[in-house]
């Protein structure tokens, strides 16, 4: 043990020597400290440690042999890690003090001396533990005794090893001396680097100034080169600008006649048909709506004589907002054109020559004369002013504007400032871009004479972070008249700043007829199409110009001659036609059925549903999956992109060509992806009330039309909605026969009728009506409100036997149906159920059939 203590003492000395070196190199200090700490901790395994000494010495030799490489690595690590550099700088700064302290034998060196003291304390603890272990373990004592018996031989070997270690220590000291020199060089290098970085920052700053100066000189030189030196800058001439704007509006007044192609557009005078307008007003009694006779009515002063300066025009997709803007622009452009009437006559002549020579041409041409290019003859017959006076008033509404600046925000969706918007909207040719500055100056100084029209705010990506938004809210150009169009979903952002809030509602019935005559070339075809649309309950959709254009296109191509009996089949035809059109443009052309593209339509339908549930009809291009993008040329006809391009890639924002197309694709996704998994794709959570269900009514109908299994899921959901809402419970309408109560708790309400209509509209799309009739009746708890729609549905379904379905069903019959059925007996005869309780709602009394 004395020899061991001597060895330990010698080892301690060596540790002090090693500590002097390893205090300068973190990695080597840690390795040596761990090694000597292991020596203290593993005194009981001295033999094993001594046997491993040679290996450790070899590791040391290899370590010192790689000193230069590690020093280089250290330089890299120091350059990459500021913290390490600071630690090295602090360590090297204290090297002299620590060396003196270590040479003097100080036991209070910061950091490492404390660790050594703690290690010594731990060594004592370990020795005590060793003594306990020796006393407790006889086997270990015997091993120690045998080990000590061999001490002489091993000590000789140890002395040799220590002697070699001494040599290695000298090499270590030499290595550390070299390390000191390299560290000093590193410090000098860092100091030089700091100086160079400072100088570099100064140079960069000076270079930046010189670059800016150079840019200014280059810009100035370019301006000099672009301007004729001999002639001064011409002042802004509002008449010239007005002429150029008018020329631009008339040249671009073209309207496409195809939903999926911009080829072969026609002059707006040949196809434009009057749209219906509604103005919304807020009064103390609440909001009210009034119809507008002409679009220029939005510029007329209100009852207090205040002239509106901020006009918000909203409408759903495809309702005709952008076409209206083109019409407004061309109407203004032709106000001062002395040849307007001649040109319109020429346009009319061209239209008449292109039409068929059938007997309907004369009537079609007359319709054109009545409503095409000159809408000023639509004044009410009850007005005291003559048509000429009314026409003049409408013209004056536009005449008061010296300049009308129309901006398509989709073309400039990323431009924030008005200057950038005007520069990038292609109103002026490249060589006349200088007009932009003069125009901006004129607008600022003559605000009352300027009308700014911004079309498509919903497709403008800058939104509220733009000068356009600041202008509409009145923070800039407050005295300008500003008209902005947007989809309904984006109107709330602008609503609080408007003076007038107008809504384009589409075609009236008569204007829809005029449009169909123009598109189909005659009254006969238009009348036939109208009859089919009416028979299929599609009049509301026909009010939307975009969809009516769809219907006319398919009718002309014979796709609707045998008109689909359901709305679902009609939209299958529309999607099929879009796909055919897209496939025909591919090389080589490939024509497949809708079912051939079930997967890709389900992928895009997933996006459609997500947007519907968020009430968002514009979505990011990145939301389209890789599967969709691989087939973008195929589905491009179903989408609108925010940029004028033939593919999707440049566009940031995408939307469906119409909400009903979006709803059909959402139903497609639910039918083929969600229904097989037993759900409706999240609709169950979003549509828990009648009002929510009504917003998704088209989706429910399309699901029922696409799949019987889907129809079952829809009816199950509607049943749960009916159960959860007591106001939809029809059982309170039925008197209690057992208690001889002939007065019901309540009468049939409008909400009952709305819910029944929602159910019947969905059932109308079902293919297997006989099999699913019971599911339909379950939606209202087996109490069925009889309406004209239901009787027509059942008659068309040609159901042979309703006994099994109706034996547990109660039918409610309202007197409002008497205009369609002569007596309740006709209903009873049809249902073939002579003992069904019947309730007549006129006087809230119950009557048995036998008593009628």
UniProtKB/TrEMBL annotation:
Superkingdom: Eukaryota
From the broadest rank down, the organism's phylogenetic lineage runs: Eukaryota, Metazoa, Cnidaria, Anthozoa, Hexacorallia
Q: Which SUPFAM superfamilies match?
A: P-loop containing nucleoside triphosphate hydrolases (SSF52540), Tropomyosin (SSF57997)
Bias (Acidic residues): 354-365, 373-386
Annotated region Disordered: the residues are 1-65, 87-167, 192-211, 343-386
- Residue ranges annotated as compositionally biased, kind Basic and acidic residues, are 122-135, 150-163, 343-353
The NACHT domain covers which part of the protein?
Answer: 398-520
Pfam families hit by this protein:
NACHT (PF05729)
What name does this protein carry?
A: NACHT domain-containing protein
Membrane-traversing stretches: none
